[in-house]
From TrEMBL:
Transketolase-like pyrimidine-binding domain boundaries: 470-644
Protein's recorded name: Thiamine pyrophosphate-dependent enzyme
Transmembrane segments annotated in the record for this chain: none
Cofactor(s) it depends on: thiamine diphosphate
Biological role stated in the UniProt entry: E1 component of the 2-oxoglutarate dehydrogenase (OGDH) complex which catalyzes the decarboxylation of 2-oxoglutarate, the first step in the conversion of 2-oxoglutarate to succinyl-CoA and CO(2).
Length: 804
């Protein structure tokens, strides 16, 4: 471990005149002081009610300035929500934009990081334009959009850094000039000391050490995790002591580990200069443990640290405040006088206050447009019911959008049934503004750019007369091979993916054909597998991140949900990571491979395309579409379909399945049965018996659950059959309930029914081991036949007498 302290000195001035050196150091002090005043004023704005919540980076200023000195264009930050000084010093945001985000300004021009969708200190830079085209990442300092989940920023650094390694080592990627300059980019990650107790931290640190990823991980250690001290969280109370086993030794992989005090400006600069050099030139990962940091205002605006810190600790923090220490060091070193520094303090305070007021004024000006329009329209309506709400709205000096639109909606309700002058104009304005507010608060769940899956040309599979019947796994294997030949950006990785070609042989032989850079194994670490895919995807590659079984997605769901699924939304379409998560599930026996946690997926992964192909040919067509598009997806293959025979299309790498469209796979007249995945084969089996019982079943394959049946094929079927059964093997009230809601509400299917719609799902528990357990806990052909017959009995008991 490399300890860096003040008395070691620094070579910061080795290539500079003393005057130039002085100017740089004094300017660093100015940035630190400005950032501190941002924290102090930001907290006041929250406490006075102008902002809803605040979290700030006070106490971490000098360490982040040191990082900014080695942060170059093309580099990436994957950070912690206390990195405001780094964001200011590197130019990734401004004080004005910081306060605009604090006030939740719903306009990307004012809050470029999130358009008011994330709280303050959650930074990002825009890496795609309004049409979804990539911007040149090598010409800017890049930051991946922050998330609030502690430690959540760790997983993606695997892919962000691995991309640099691949761009350096694979000459076939050299044409991707927008994403890398020969693999010389470094990923700077920051994490709080408390978050180093989390599993994702150790999972990622281990993986980074194995692959020798060019990252510099900063641990901001202020001694606490909210109120919990290090001694309660970390063995020996010191994370760098815990990490000593990761220290790189002669001939081994691992990290270079630095330990430096957070108030030691020269030591910090020296540590980061060395760490960045190791990572950039040698692709050696580094950890910089920054100790003796303070947190002057406590954890956040929601509480006070005086409740849990002793007087001795509070006094120590005052003495070791990094800005106070730098102030004294500048004077002691004759770099600046007390008068000069005091002037900087005053100027910084005035500047921050000016930018805060400007941001607040612009925020209110934007809201005032809606308020003035509403007031003008309400004033045109001559009715006593309008007078009071109008006066109340006029009396508000700084009305929120909630107050404006709540008032308008109340008036509309009060005027129900009245034909009065001005009401039509108010209604027309309100309907128009619904679209405006939809854009402000509900848009960009997907990028919907020029390369979205909806823009991929639909090409039908072609079959020759002598088309082979081969195993489903072979269909997938040939699909992957054709696409890997076509597109050098494609990569695949996961547990057992490389050497043996995955547990079901979808990638069999492809590592030998395309190399270990493109098809490779990982350890058992679902969070970092998905995170690796996210990081690679945002840097221009096309990763397939394999989760071995669908049940195991649970162990990576935080990264998939909190980071990937919300990325487009929380950046207002400013970032995208088109990773494909590949897995397999459905109808394997046993509690731990029950294979259908679909309600969890639907509830947590809004923002991903959820593809549930019924066989491997359909899966291949979906992959072909997704490989040519730029939005993230989860593809769930049928686990019991790999050895079933399928006819091989002649255009296996080219035909496409449109994402979001259902398919009618059996025409019928009496009842519509909607299902997906492996359960469809059970429905088809039941339909044959129902034919013999005189019941004609129409079967709709949903194909994708997100989005669901965009063409409303289910409703079209109900126009003919007027009866609906939804079959799936999720828990009751899970995916089947979602499908029914989509059909009955979104497609107005309720008005097409002549009997109660039904769902047939698995039992509430997971299936016990063995085929009998599967039979008694998941929908069987017998269950489907009897449920359909019972539904027909309700309408015509004479023709379909009760079975039981």
């Amino acid at each position: 471990m490399l300890e860096t302290t003040l008395d070691q000195g620094s070579d910061l001035n080795s290539k500079l005149s003393f005057d130039d050196f002085r100017k740089i150091i004094v300017e660093d002090y100015r940035v630190a002081v400005e950032s501190r005043y941002v924290s102090l004023l930001g907290r006041k704005e929250v406490l006075t009610g102008k902002a809803k919540f605040g979290i700030f980076g006070d106490g971490k200023e000098l360490a982040q300035i040191a990082v900014s000195k080695v942060f170059q264009k093309g580099d990436w930050r994957s950070g912690y929500y206390r990195d405001q000084t780094l964001a200011f010093a590197s130019g990734m945001t401004s004080i004005y934009h910081f306060f605009s985000q604090l006030y939740a300004h719903p306009d990307v021009e004012y809050d470029p990081s999130s358009a008011g969708r994330q709280m303050n200190c959650h930074f990002s830079v825009r890496i795609i334009d309004e049409e979804g085209n990539w911007l040149d990442q090598t010409k800017q300092k890049n930051t991946f959009s922050d998330i609030s989940t502690t430690g959540g920023q760790m997983a993606r650094i695997l892919g962000l850094g691995l991309a640099s390694k691949l761009y350096r080592e694979n000459p076939n990627l050299s044409y991707l000039k927008y994403f890398s300059n020969g693999g010389n980019e470094v990923v700077f990650c920051s994490v709080g000391n408390a978050s180093t107790s989390e599993g994702v931290f150790f999972e990622v640190v281990n993986a980074v050490g194995v692959k020798q990823i060019p990252v510099v991980i900063s641990i901001w250690d202020d001694g606490y995790g909210i109120s919990v001290p290090n001694e309660v969280q970390t063995t020996k109370g010191d994370i760098s002591e815990v990490l000593k086993g990761f220290q790189k030794e002669d001939g081994s992989n691992g990290f270079e580990i630095f330990k430096v005090k957070g108030w030691d400006y020269p030591g910090l600069c020296q540590a980061y200069e060395r760490a960045a050099k190791y990572a950039r030139e040698h692709h050696t990962p580094c950890i910089v443990h920054v100790i003796e940091l303070t947190q002057p205002q406590g954890h956040s605006s929601s509480g006070s640290h005086e409740r849990y810190k002793s007087k001795e600790r509070l006094n120590w923090e005052l003495e070791h405040d990094c800005i106070a220490k730098m102030h004294q060091w500048l004077i002691d070193s004759d770099i600046a006088t007390a008068e000069q520094l005091n002037l900087i303090d005053e100027e910084a305070k005035d500047f921050v206050r000016k930018e805060q007021r400007r941001a607040w004024s612009d925020y209110n000006k934007a809201l005032a447009v809606d308020a003035s329009q509403a007031i003008a329209l309400l004033s045109q309506i001559d009715d006593e019911l309008v007078e009071l709400p109008l006066k109340q709205l006029q009396s508000l000096t700084e009305p929120s959008l909630k107050e404006v639109y709540s008032t308008v909606r109340k008036v509309i309700r009060e005027l129900k049934g009245k034909d009065i002058e001005g009401k039509g104009a108010l209604l027309a304005w309100y309907k128009l503004q619904q679209g405006v507010n939809e854009s402000r608060y509900n848009s960009k769940l997907f990028t919907t750019g020029v390369d979205g899956p909806e823009n991929v040309q639909v090409i039908a599979p072609q079959y020759s007369d002598d088309a082979k019947f081969i195993d489903g796994r072979e269909v997938l294997n040939l699909c992957f091979e054709e696409n890997f030949r076509r597109d050098e950006r494609l990569l695949a990785f996961g547990e057992d993916v490389g050497k043996i070609g995955d547990v079901n042989q979808g990638f069999a032989g492809l590592q030998e054909k395309f190399g270990e850079h493109r098809v490779f194994d990982t350890g058992i670490r679902e969070n970092s597998i998905i995170g690796k895919g996210i990081g690679l995807a945002i840097r221009g590659l096309k990763p397939i991140a394999e989760i071995q079984y669908l049940d195991y997605l649970l162990y990576g769901i935080t990264v998939a949900s909190d980071d990937l699924a919300s990325l487009s939304y929380r950046t207002f379409g400013g970032q995208k990571a088109p990773v494909i998560i590949r897995t397999r599930g459905h109808r394997l026996e046993g509690i731990w491979h029950s294979g259908s946690p679909m309600s969890m997926i639907l509830g947590t992964l809004r923002g991903l395309h959820i593809c549930v192909p019924r066989n491997m040919t359909q899966a291949a067509g979906m992959y072909n579409t997704l490989f040519r598009s730029d939005e993230p997806a989860l593809v769930i293959e049928c686990l019991n379909g790999y050895r079933l025979k399928e006819r091989l299309p002649d255009n296996i790498g080219d035909f496409t399945i449109p994402i979001g469209y259902a398919e009618c796979i059996r025409v019928g007249a009496d009842i519509t049965v909607v299902s997906y995945g492996s359960t469809l084969r059970v429905v088809e089996e039941a339909a044959m018996e129902l034919d013999r019982l005189g019941i004609s079943v129409e079967i709709i394959d949903a194909q994708t659950l997100q989005p669901f049946d965009k063409a409303h094929l289910c409703a079209e079927s109900l126009k003919k059959t007027n009866k609906l059964l939804v079959v799936d093997e999720d828990v009751p009230g899970g995916a089947s309930a979602f499908i029914m809601q989509q059909i009955l509400e979104d497609q107005n299917g309720y008005y097409l029914l002549d009997s109660q719609p039904r769902t047939l799902s698995a039992k509430a528990h997971r299936p016990p081991y063995g085929s009998d357990g599967d039979y008694f806990t998941k929908p069987s052909s017998d269950d489907i036949v009897e449920t359909v017959f019972e539904m027909m009995n309700e309408g015509n008991p004479d023709k379909y007498p009760s079975l039981f």
